[in-house]
UniProtKB/TrEMBL annotation:
This is PspA/IM30 family protein. Residues 90-116, 133-168, 180-208 are annotated as: Disordered. It comes from the Bacteria. Belongs to the PspA/Vipp/IM30 family. Residues 107-116, 133-148 have a biased composition (Basic and acidic residues). Residues 198-208 have a biased composition (Acidic residues). PANTHER family: MEMBRANE-ASSOCIATED PROTEIN VIPP1, CHLOROPLASTIC (PTHR31088), PHAGE SHOCK PROTEIN A (PTHR31088:SF6).
Length: 222
């Protein structure tokens, strides 16, 4: 019934370390521990409810027996007043029987009440411990998620500057330089492929320009 407390120690003790060492998911495991604690609390709540019901039942029986004791006492006194000693004796005999039963029921009720009080106290302790563990669980979950995020970021950042990445970058740089060299070469080839007629056309164009300059000079239109 009180497996709860051993599980509490498990969460905060060596089992948690063992869990992490085995690479188990702390978030899932903490949730599982909390579900087990909740189950234990429900189990104890049920036991407390039954014990309280038993206590009330014994208290009611004791009160009924005590009421009958008081009734038989009153009846015996009434019979004496009426001069009926036989009836008084019978009432006192039954009173004695009921008194013994009331005494026994009182002892049983007191034991039941003590047990119920202890169970209620234990239940209160369990619920308080559960709330403390719930707060701690939320903190541990946040820490676990933060650690996962940091690990992922560190792995990503370390992969950015590794040798493979550098070699790949350098390889792409060489390709760009190769494309530029090919473009320059194609321009040189294009210039070298001009025909002889193209070169004479250029010369003729140059002569026209000279002639046009001389004409403008002659006409004073420089």
């Amino acid at each position: 019934m009180f497996k709860f407390f051993s599980r509490v120690k498990t969460v905060v003790g060596s089992e948690l370390n063992a869990m992490l060492d085995k690479a188990e998911d702390p978030v899932k495991m903490l949730d599982q521990f909390m579900r087990e604690m909740e189950s234990d609390i429900r189990e104890v709540e049920s036991a407390v409810a039954k014990q309280i019901a038993n206590e009330k039942m014994l208290k009611r029986k004791h009160d009924d027996a005590q009421a009958l004791v008081d009734k038989r006492q009153a009846q015996a006194e009434k019979a004496i007043e009426a001069g009926n000693e036989d009836l008084a004796r019978r009432a006192l005999q039954d009173k004695k029987t009921q008194d013994q039963q009331a005494t026994s029921l009182k002892e049983s009720w007191e034991r039941a009440k003590t047990d119920a009080d202890q169970l209620r106290t234990k239940l209160d302790e369990m619920k308080k411990e559960y709330q403390d563990m719930k707060l701690k669980k939320d903190s541990l979950k946040a820490r676990a998620e933060s650690a996962k995020t940091r690990t992922k970021m560190n792995r990503t950042m370390s992969s950015i500057g590794n040798d493979d990445s550098k070699r790949g970058f350098e390889r792409m740089e060489e390709k760009v330089m190769q494309f530029e060299a090919e473009a320059d070469t194609s321009e040189d080839l294009s210039a070298a492929s001009k025909s002889l007629d193209d070169e004479f056309d250029n010369l003729e164009n140059d002569g026209v320009d000279d002639e046009l300059a001389a004409l403008k000079k002659k006409m004073g239109k420089e």
